[in-house]
Amino acid sequence: MIAPKKLCILRLSAIGDVCHAVAMVQAIQRQYPDCEITWVIGKVEAMLLSELPGVNFVIFDKKAGLQGYLDLRKALAGQVFDVLLHMQVALRASIASLMIKAKQRIGFDRARAKEGQWLFTNQQIALQAEPHVLDGFMGFAQAVGVSDTTAHWQMPISDEQQLWASEQLVSDKPIAIICAAASKAERNWHAQGYGEIAHYLQQQGFMVVLCGGPTALEQKLAAMIQANCPEPLMNLVGKTSLVQLAACLKLAHLVIAPDTGPAHMAVTVATPVVGLYAHSNPKRTGPYTYQHYVVSYYQQAIQAQQHKPVSKLPWGIRAKGDDLMANIKVEQVKDKIRQLIADLYPELVK
User: Are 207 and 328 found together in one domain?
Assistant: First the structure.
């Protein structure tokens, strides 16, 4: 494999997925330190990664309609890349790929190249059997000759941002962060459960912090969690930028979260996650290095809906229903917290 000199990555969203993609980008950088990398990325996602070393970011605003495509073509005018890694199967992304000039255009294997993605590429990554999303992305690194695809992250958190986080989270106690809200309300666990878990963590000696975005749904959920916890919680919901949130997650001893971006952000800064899953298969989308701390109702939900075991169904199939997360029991979450503390922080065991 000839080392690429100019490489373009097309992965627009979402937060969790771009966190996975960072590991792939940095694997490429380790193998090809002189490679010039351009990453076409979404507006929100760029807020988290804009200072990533050695990467030139070009923002594609998907909400701008036709103007977004014209702006992308203008931003890349005159550039020809050796390789385009087309890492998003949405038709919107494939149309955006037409604005990128590249000799080699690598996409997903035919089985995963949905929405006609294969029509926009001239090479595919190798077929993989039931991969985690991150492993699927590493297939692109392998396609350009990267030999070491072990996931490592160096996230762009400045000293200033880390200092800000440490000033917010001043405590002589270990820190537990609850990022309660996912982008879709159906993926959220209930406020009563989060409140009980927050109080349990306090009883174990933790300072418990609520984190999340500024939406009305997240603000309301945070207020309801506090209402279900008899002791005060620190509430940083809506009070952090994405990078500040990453800095807070880095200081935490553990994170509780459903299938949402901050769970994967925590993984990138080596903070263990207790993930709560019911709609998607955690073996595909769970916290990559902390799968053993996941509480999942996914398998039971899929078998009840499809009347087949997960092994007999298409990889990545989702379970449907607005109330699936209610099947996750408080005691199950406590069990995983106890396991995590015993494994990683035995000095905190009571």
Answer: yes
Residues 129 and 193 in one domain: no
Contact 132, 284 (CB under 8 A): yes
Tokens in use for 120?
A: 């926009």
Range of the domain at 310: 159-348
State yes or no: cis peptide before 14, omega within 30 of 0.
yes
- Torsion-angle region of 21 (φ positive above 0: left; ψ -120 to 50: alpha; else: beta): alpha
Domain annotation covers residue 148: no
Contacts 24+ apart (CB under 8 A), 266-272: 266/177, 266/179, 267/19, 267/153, 268/19, 268/22, 268/23, 268/153, 268/155, 269/153, 269/155, 269/157, 270/153, 272/340, 272/344
- Does the reported pTM lie above 0.90? yes
- Residue 225 counted as domain residue: yes
**pLDDT digits over 65-107, tens only?**
999 999 999 999 999 999 999 999 999 999 999 999 999 999 9
Partners of 349 in beta bridges: none
pLDDT in tens, 112-165: 999 999 999 999 999 999 999 999 999 999 999 999 999 999 999 999 999 999
Instruction: Quote the pLDDT of residue 329.
Output: 98
Total domains in the fold of the chain: 2
Question: Is residue 206's pLDDT more than 80?
Answer: yes
Which phi and psi angles does 246 have, rounded to 5°? -60, -40
Task: Give the sign of the dihedral formed by CA 22, CA 23, CA 24, CA 29.
Answer: positive
On whether both 328 and 193 belong to a single domain, the answer is yes
Secondary structure class of 10 (helix, strand, coil): strand
Assign 309 a pLDDT band (cuts: 50, 70, 90): confident
CB atoms closer than 10 angstroms to residue 264: 26
Please answer whether residues 33 and 3 qualify as being in contact, where contact means their C-beta atoms are separated by less than 8 angstroms: no
